[in-house]
Design brief:
The chain has 371 residues and is α/β, with parallel strands linked by helices. It folds into two domains: 115 residues, D-serine dehydratase-like domain (Lyase, Ornithine Decarboxylase, Chain A, domain 1); 224 residues, TIM Barrel (Alpha-Beta Barrel). It has ten helices and 18 strands. Strand 3, helix 3 and strand 4 form a beta-alpha-beta unit. 44% of the residues are buried. The model has no long low-confidence stretch (mean pLDDT 97).
Length: 371
């Protein structure tokens, strides 16, 4: 059968199920669109936690992107293995992770690695440990401007912390990290107003920094939801990530962002246990299950269905057109949340021109690569 849709594989028998499909041409197109929105590749700190694959990082490097964010030490090492030279770990590293951070810097001395700090005590820990190794820790001050997940509050104590960071001999503070991922209003103008309102105190803080005679900070702001707002702010760096692969959740919530689905989950019908019900091999292990069951997967080649149950290996669908569905049929689904879905797979099939051309390792899903 000749494929009739962009996502349908020429030879579906090559793909085991459940499996992750990465459509290379669409990924490259999304990267190009991301650069165009930012006004240039040099304004991006693209987050690699969505894709976790060295080959995708290489596609971004080939497109001119040189700076990246990541969520873990393993993701940072994955990106360094791919050839990235400038990486910010968007976490405050505590406990044994500080020594792992040192080991990462030692193993890849040609790479700029930085992490986040929002607490004086942890800054002091970094200073002491890096001093012991004869190194300097690169850091950004993590600022909480409303999400309340991490970062130092924008109150009257934050200037003192910023001055303290600059006074530590084995810590170099390069600027501010401001993540406002809680702002996801679908209407762009409303969302932009919310983003701008949340950034007023950040701008006041920046002014106080320069008035104190300290170097003007680099500002890394936002993620995918606020990308199109921060892209209009000339003196900030943007750090989208999901848009490289895109998903159903953001596709519906962010209508002004013209990205295309580039990652799908392939699954097969494995049983028809009773009339009106079919079972697929897409359980919790195949698609991110942190959202309610009606926000897990959207099938592109199936209509009039409802996902009514999931276990580890099985997904149960209530369908209207039960008679026409056969055991063995292939379904192509868009994850509601692609980032943790990618994290479920050791490897992904690479699709070019509707043909599987190889596999890419999801190397960054590991807790530890070498350090």
């Amino acid at each position: 059968m000749t494929p009739t849709s962009w996502y349908q594989l020429q030879d579906e028998a090559q793909a085991d199920s459940p499996s992750l499909l990465i459509y290379k041409e669409r990924t490259q197109q999304n990267i190009a669109v991301m650069i165009n929105i930012a006004g240039g590749a040099d304004r991006l700190y693209t987050h690699v936690k969505t894709n976790k694959m060295p080959e995708v990082v290489k596609l971004m490097l080939d497109a001119g992107i040189s700076k990246f964010k990541c969520a873990t030490i393993a993701e940072a090492e994955m990106a360094a293995i791919a050839g990235a030279k400038h990486l910010v770990i968007a976490h405050q590293l505590v406990g044994p992770k500080i020594e792992r951070f040192v080991a990462l810097c030692q193993k890849y001395p040609e790479v700029f690695f930085a992490s986040l700090i929002d607490t004086e005590a942890i800054a002091n820990d970094h200073n002491a440990i890096f001093e012991r190794h004869g190194l300097t820790a690169n850091i950004f001050l993590d600022v909480n401007n409303g999400m309340d997940r991490s970062g130092h509050p924008l109150n009257d104590t934050i200037p003192a912390l910023y001055k303290h960071l600059h006074a530590l001999p084995n810590v170099q503070c390069h600027g501010l990290h401001v993540y406002d991922g809680h702002l996801r209003t679908p209407d762009f103008e409303t969302r932009k107003h919310e983003v701008d309102a949340g950034f007023v105190d950040v701008q006041h803080f920046v002014e106080s920094i320069t008035e104190a005679g300290l170097p003007k900070p680099i500002i890394i702001a936002g993620g995918t939801p606020t990308f199109t707002s921060h892209a209009l702010r000339n003196e900030t760096y943007c750090s989208p990530g999901t848009c490289v692969l895109w998903d159903w959740g953001y596709g519906d919530k962010l209508p002004e962002q013209p990205f295309e689905y580039a990652a799908l989950v392939l699954t097969r019908v494995i049983s028809k246990p009773q009339k009106g019900i079919v079972t697929i091999d897409m359980g919790h292990k195949a698609v991110a299950a942190e959202n309610p069951i009606d926000k897990r997967i959207r099938f592109l080649n199936l209509e009039n269905y409802e996902l009514i149950g999931q276990s580890e290996e099985h997904g149960v669908l209530k369908v209207q057109d039960w008679e026409s569905i056969r055991v063995g049929d292939v379904l192509y689904g868009v994850p509601y949340h692609v980032c943790p879905t990618v994290n479920l797979y050791d490897e992904a099939y690479v699709v070019e021109n509707q043909t599987i051309t190889g596999t890419w390792q999801v190397l960054g899903r590991k807790r530890r690569i070498t350090v």
